[in-house]
Amino acid sequence: MNDEPVRYLGVEIVGGAREYRFRVNCKPASHGERIFFMRIAAASFSPGKLTFQDGPEIASRKLRAMLQTEQDNHPLAPHQELSESDIADYAVSGKLRHKAWTEEQKVAARIRAGQSRRGQEP
Question: Residues 27, 53: contact at Cβ < 8 Å?
Answer without folding.
Answer: no
